[in-house]
Amino acid sequence: MNMYDSLADYAGGALDGTPEGAAVAARIASDPAWRAAYEELTGALTLVQADLAVLAAQPDEPPRDFAAPFEPPALPQTRRKSQWALAGGSLAVVLLALAGGTFLLTGSDSSSTTRGMSADNGDAPAGAAPQSYAERIRVTASGKDYQRGPALGAAKSTDTPKSTSRGEAEEQSAVAELSRLRDKPALDRCLAQVQRRHGVVPEAADYARFEGRPAVILTFSGSTGIVVVGPSCGLSGPDEIYSSR
Amino acid sequence: MRSDAELLTAHADGDKGAFAELVRRHQSRLWAVALRTLGDREEAADALQDALLSAYRNADKFRGEAAVTTWLHRIVVNACLDRVRRKQARPTVPLPESGPGEPAVDTDRDTPMLVRAALQELPAEQRAALILIDVQGFSVADAAEVLGVAEGTVKSRCARGRAKLAVLLGHLRNPSLLDDVS
């Protein structure tokens, strides 16, 4: 142990009642250089503790409610078909409603697969793991290419899809590029970032494309808009591509 | 109002809202520990989330030998230290180098930033001990319980951490005095 550590330990009470503590005390008492060094250090330590007290007084509120994932579901959970599947060929209408009428997202293909990362078969048994964000969300992997579109009225009048069909292979490719987000912890981190930015957890996710780019289309309960995130969602932020919220 | 121990027991017995209530009660302090230990908000949020999930799953292993808050803090600190060790985290805010001709630092306003940055320069174990005791106000005994080490070890980590901070924060008026002894 070097002298500085010895003096630090002594000043911090770590040597109280030990032979080494007694030796350091004796050295401070008998050696002017040690005494000066000790006084120098203790004066500085007083300032350090004052600095730490300033830090302690700084408010650091949590960025989100960490208790939320452990709350029991607000509504009884029943097995439901995905909104995409219910929408069938009129996916645009469903998406329009979710987007709050601000923008239209249209999909070119109604084929939809609910793969259910979620345990949507009711409440988890007591003592089981809580539903993480990823477990709560309904997941589909349509591979569709979504596009920004006009508002609801205009969309109805034109009734023209804004995207083109890319074929099954390309849809699979889109989903493959999002493979990282098929890992539940990765999706959980992504959804946490979205929740942090928007204050609410999405209700459904579609692994697809947005204007040609691999993207996850996130929708929320209560028709509160749409968020589109890219493959890096959760790595250093939500990787948000588009939001109508 | 149910005590922490009652909430944890209720959770282990299947009360679905008990754990959330427990987390909501303590999340501000747990967040502060995670943030100050890791020095990065996103890392801290991930660590805290992981720690709470671990606590949720392992509630039945709580034996009541320590306070529930101590147990929760232990899990959070361990999650943070695991992340530090895995990623060998580097300081997120470099300490400013002050010298002649450089603008003076507004120390009143910048002290928290400087202290946060200096804390990140410390070895993680010293940092965790200092945060628990000097920032979060834990007793040495409680901090020892959280960190799973002897009280003397906690005192030593704090003492050496403070001594390093004294250097990092420029509080030694005459550092040569410390070079003159051997």
Uncertain segments of chain A: 75-127, 150-166
Query: Can you give the mean pLDDT of chain A?
Result: 70
**Content of β-strand of chain B:** under 5%
Strand content of chain A: 5-15%
CATH class of chain B: Mainly Alpha
Report on the biggest sheet of chain B.
none
User: What portion of residues of chain B is helical?
Assistant: 55-70%
The greatest interface between two protein chains, and residues involved on each side, is: A-B, 58 and 62 residues
End-to-end Cα distance of chain B, whole Å, is 58 Å
Radius of gyration of chain A: 29 Å
The class by helix and strand makeup of chain B works out as: mainly alpha
Structural class call of chain A reads: alpha/beta
Q: What kind of assembly state do the chains in view correspond to?
A: heterodimer
End-to-end distance of chain A: 59 Å
CATH homologous superfamily assignment of chain B: RNA polymerase sigma factor, region 2, helix turn helix motif
Overall outline of chain A: rod-shaped
Q: What integer is the average pLDDT of chain B?
A: 86
Number of helices of chain A: 9
Order of helix and strand elements from N to C terminus of chain A = HHHHHEHEEHHHEEEE
Shape of chain B: elongated
Secondary structure layout:
The complex is a heterodimer of chains A (245) and B (182).
Chain A: H1 3-11, H2 19-30, H3 32-57, H4 83-87, H5 91-98, E1 104-106, H6 133-136, E2 138-140, E3 145-149, H7 152-158, H8 167-177, H9 184-198, E4 204-210, E5 213-219, E6 226-229, E7 240-243
Parallel strand pairs in A: 2-4, 3-4
Antiparallel strand pairs in A: 1-3, 4-5, 5-6, 6-7
Helix pairs in contact in A: 2-3
Chain B: H1 4-12, H2 18-38, H3 41-57, H4 68-87, H5 107-121, H6 124-135, H7 140-147, H8 151-168, H9 176-179
Helix pairs in contact in B: 1-2, 2-3, 2-4, 3-4, 4-7, 6-7, 6-8, 7-8
